[in-house]
Predict the structure of Aspartate carbamoyltransferase catalytic subunit.
Amino acid sequence: MRSLLSNRDITVDEIYEIFDLAAFYLKNGIKSDLAGKVIFSLFFESSTRTETSFSLAASKLGCLVEKVNVETVALKKGEHLVDFFASLNALLPNAFVVRHSQSGILHLLEKYTDCCIVNAGDGTNEHPTQGLIDAFTILLLKEKIEGLNVLVCGDIIRSRVAHSTIPILQRLGATVAISGPLSFMPLIQVEEVVYHSNFSAAAKSADVIIMLRTQTERTGQKVLAGTTAPFRLDENVLKDLGRDVLIMHPGPVHRNCEISNAVLEDSRNAILTQVRNSQFVRAAVLNFLIKS
């Protein structure tokens, strides 16, 4: 059974297949297409949107969702993570939904499971379903992705959202640029991605602006407000943006840090639309993987 550890695990045709199913669920409601299937949900890092939307999507699909409390599991007694997953696998689930702080760990765990694993975020590596949600939201509101100019601004180097969203938008034909403090940028130039040091100027020509949260829990040091201030989406930047620009953010939003209150109240803000779409895209992903 297939896993989704990276958006590179699926083809462009399969991405659109998932989008078609997500659009069907959005219009008609999520159907009990996976009645009786068992999903193990394991979040080794805190989560609100991702964990809740996955559980909601799986429940509406008719799955039995078992949330494993990782604070009380045998790992606290010294059990190896591999043995822990092998034990859960012996209970014959149909899928694991896993978030973990260690980048790339799910590629190892996949070898010890017989069912699919859905990556709900691994360290600073990837968050594939969020990338799919972002792309689906753009497609829904812009009616296309190919040819769009997308500007991603913020903590690129530590954002697993950026590492999933940027490649998928490129594969679907968008031109992607990045902006943010140099200390937030990858050390190696991202292929076919242009860096803009002047965020406000770059924003003027963007069709879509995706702001990212500063990953304060991963920086290892306090981030000075003066470092990020020139890259904040606020009233001064907002007034120069096109009427049709799409403003997005995967959440949680740090109000008046990377994005201001005025922007959150602007009609071009699609952040809650991203949240709404998350259950439909994640339901489509689970259906696609388990039935593959």
